[in-house]
Amino acid sequence: MTVNARAGRGRRAARPHRSRPAAVRFELRDGVAWLTLDRPTTANHLDAELQGALVDACTAAEEARGARVVVLAARGSVFSAGLPRGCQRPEPAWPDGVRAVAALTKPVVAALHGDAIGYGMALALACDLRIAARSAVLALPEVPEGTLPGGGVMARLARIVGPARALEIVLLGARLTATRAAAWGLVSRVVAAAHLHATVVETARRLAARGPLALRLAKEAVTAALDLPLGEGIRLEEDLYVLLQTTADRREGIRAFLAGRTPRFGAR
Predict the structure, then answer these.
(1) E-state strands within 128-188
(2) Per-residue pLDDT reduced to its tens digit, 115-147
(3) Distances (CA, A) of 205 to 30, 39, 130, 200, 201
(4) Measured between alpha carbons, how far is 204 from 29 in angstroms, rounded to an integer?
(5) For residues 125 and 127, what is the distance between their CA atoms, to the nearest angstrom?
(6) What does the pLDDT average to over 108-113?
(7) Topology given in CATH for the domain delimited by 212-259
(8) Quick one: CATH architecture of 24-208?
């Protein structure tokens, strides 16, 4: 912005306006879309601004042809402390960041370096894999406080750990350490905080090296199976297998195997 020098005589010139950094940072590196919650001073509370930025970042990750895997991380000491203080439910007009993460067709890895509380836990469970620092805690404090958890967390929780453990977490507000969460299947792997980033990077790169169409179809089959009778789930699995056989990626996989080289998948 250009400042008028004459108008500025006798008083301090106006400073150029600086827009506030996005609440969610998006970076694409080596086939991995990194979405980083970037409001550490608010404990990454899922307010309208952050959820709107998360929806935008998810759209960018879904549309980016070079992105085969998505990592959801956060800055600060907390992954997310949930909704803003005093807010029991998002306003109807707010964007739905949790739903946007759950709707991604690409595999999503959550890097839980710190606590995931309330809606923050809902956000973590919307991801496909969760890798946690040993110091991280997951909790749903809503029922002991006289309200109910949201963000689809109770439905996803019951599907992952079963109704008995889900009720213990929801009704008692039990705080799960990362180690206990791993034992219950909520977390895929627990590592020292100093090793979390490297572990997430290695996991994401391993996934990105796989066939992107196979990754997406496998995710679709597993996710859809939760809502289908067994027979329909098996038929879907078979249909997706047949579909994959018609793709260029499948032919490339066979050629690479026969030639003893690394496949060069093109998501076709």
Answers:
(1) 129-133, 137-139, 176-177
(2) 999 999 999 999 999 999 999 999 999 999 999
(3) 7, 26, 15, 8, 6
(4) 10
(5) 5
(6) 98
(7) Lyase 2-enoyl-coa Hydratase; Chain  A, domain 2 (1.10.12)
(8) Alpha-Beta Complex (3.90)
